Amino acid sequence: EAADIAQILEAADHENVYVCWNSNHNDVKDGSVAGDFTLMQEKIRLVHITELWEEAYGIYPYRELFTLLSESGYQGYCCAEIPESSEPERLMRYYRALFEAYAAG
Question: Which of 4, 31, 45, 68 could form a disulfide with 18 if both were Cys (CB 3.0 to 4.6 A apart)?
């Protein structure tokens, strides 16, 4: 839970302590990740993203996440945690196109 992570960050207040935003479904509250994101936005240094198509079905608000990341000044990487494909280059082209479309707002 984000509240627990925020407490850990407070207790481990050090310049080398950061978090990975893992795009967990339990971070979505009333269709938004803003509440949990706000608790730790200054310490996010890596983002794991999964199935970007979930945005289209209201499962995970990736457009909102990308907006929050941009507004917070995030400059790190987003790692795609997705299953392997027999056509990896083709899949990554689609994934990149969708990522860029969502990131553009």
Answer: 45
- Residue 59 CA to residue 31 CA, distance in Å, equals 8
One-letter amino acid at 98 equals L
Cα dist. 105→1, 10, 98 in Å? Answer: 27, 32, 11
Any idea what the Cα angle at residue 50 is, between residues 52 and 13, rounded to 5°? 120
15 touches 23 (CB < 8 A)? no
DSSP label at residue 79: E
What does pTM read for this prediction? 0.89
Is residue 101 within 8 A of residue 54, CB to CB? The reply is no
Strand partners, 31: none
pLDDT digits (tens, 9 = 90+) for 56-80: 999 999 999 999 999 999 999 999 9
